[in-house]
Amino acid sequence: MTKKIVPVIMAGGKGTRLWPLSRAAAPKQFIQFIGDKTLFQETLQRVSDPALYEAPVVLTNEEFRFLVAEQARELDIGLAAILLEPVARNTAAAVAAAATLVSKRFDQDTIMHVLGSDYEIVADDTYFDCVRIAAATAAEGKLVTFGIQPTEPATGYGYIEGGEALTTGARVVARFIEKPPLAKAEEMLAAGSFYWNSGMFMFSVSCLLDELRTHAPETIKAAGEAVANAKTDLDFTRLDRSAFSAAPNISIDYAIMEKTSNAAVVPSPFKWSDLGSWDSVWKSGSRDEHGNVAAANTTVVNTKNSLIMTHGVHLAVQGMDDIAVIASEDAVYVGRLQDSQDVGSIVKMLAAAPSTSQLTETHPTSYRPWGGYTSVLNGDRFQVKRIFVTPGKKLSLQKHHHRSEHWIVVKGTAEVTIGENVQMLRENESVYIPLGEIHRLANPGKIMLELIEVQTGSYLGEDDIIRIVDEFGRS
C-alpha cells in the first residue's frame, strides 16, 4: 500500500520525425538535443521526488531495454520495473499492463501518473501544482488528463474542451477534438476553453481497471494474461507475447478517455512541447538576438530564425533564414523550418532505398548492456570501431568464424581473456585475437575503458558472434 503516486513512463516509441538524430533504433526520447540529458532522463528527474512519487515503472521494448536501464543508472535513479512489450500495441494495452502490475504490487487505490518520455516540459511550481490538482481529482474517481494552455492555433495537436469546473481545480471534459484545420484551431484559441491534448494522465488503478472492463474488455483481458504469464529476465519483466499480441492496437484516448463519463482535464499553463518536428525544437529552444537556436560546435554568421545542431562535424552556416541544419555522425538534414513537419516523407524515401535504409535505422554509435561501440571506418574486409566499456562490465565470452581482431587500449584498463590466458592491458598496449579463438573483454577499473578495434576478415557482420558465456542472458 502506498500514498505516493506511481509514475508510469511510456518509452517504446520509434518515431523518426527528428531525423537524422532520431532513428528507429535510437529515437528522440533517448537523444540529447540541447543540454546534457536526454528527454527520457528529464522525464525520470520530474518523477524523482521521493516525497511525492514511488520509483517509476517504465514500458519499453526489447530493442531499447538497455538504453532505459543505462540512462536511469547514469542518474542513479532506481526503477520499480521495466516492462518489455513483445509487440507494439499502442498505449491502451501498455497502460492496462502497467495498471495490472501496480495493482499487484501496491493496491487498487494507488494513483498512477502516466506520462510520455519524449516531451519537453519545464517542471516549475506551476507544473507541480497541476500534478497535485490531478492527483486530488483522480482520488475522487475521475480519469484525469492534462490539457496544455495553447499558445498558438496549432494544427498538429488534438484538443480538449473544458466543461464544468470541479472543486479540485480541474474541469469536466466536454469533448475531445481531433487535430483541427487552421480556421478551427483559431476559433478554439479565441474561445479560451480549449486545451492541447498532452497525452499525460492521472487515475486510480481501480477506476482505470473498471473503465477498461466496461469499454475495452479485450484489452484488459490480454494485458492481465500478459502480466500473469510474464517472465523475469535480469532487471526486466517480459510480458507474455501470445497474450499481449491479442490486445487491440488502440490508444488509451480511444479505448477509455473518449468513452468514459468520468473524464476530467486539468488546465495546464506550464511550458510543454512534444518536440514533434524541428520547428517545435526551435520554438522550445533558447534563441539568441537573431532568433537562432544553435548548439555547441557550430559557427553561425548572418543567419536568423534558424536551428543549427550537430552531433558530429562542426557546422558553419552563413546567410540563412528559417532554416534547420541538423548533422548527426553520418548524415545531414537541411530544410526550411516551416517544412520540417514533412521530414517523415524524406525518411520514407531513404528507408525504401537499400543504399540509404541503414541511415533511418541505426546510428554509427550503438549501445549495449556493457557500454557500446562507434563504427569509425568500413572497408573491403576491414572495419574500425571505437569500443567503450562501463566500469565493472564485461562482454560475453565469444568467438568468431570469419574475422580476427586487433585491440589497442586508449583509456583505462582492459582485462583480456584469450583461450586459457588472462592478461591486463593498459593505455597504449595492444593485443591480437586470432580467428576462431575464444576471447573476452572486461573493464575491471573505475573509469570508462576505451579501445580501438580493427577487424579483418571475409565477413564482419554483427551476427558473426558465437556467445559461450554471457551475463546478460544472450548466450
From TrEMBL:
PANTHER family: MANNOSE-1-PHOSPHATE GUANYLYLTRANSFERASE. The keyword Protease does not apply. Residues 7-286 form the Nucleotidyl transferase domain. GO terms for biological process: GDP-mannose biosynthetic process; polysaccharide biosynthetic process. It catalyses: alpha-D-mannose 1-phosphate + GTP + H(+) = GDP-alpha-D-mannose + diphosphate. It comes from Rhizobium favelukesii. GO terms for molecular function: GTP binding; mannose-1-phosphate guanylyltransferase (GTP) activity. The keyword Transferase applies. This is mannose-1-phosphate guanylyltransferase. Residues 358-469 form the Mannose-6-phosphate isomerase type II C-terminal domain. It is an enzyme of class 2 (transferase). It comes from the Bacteria.
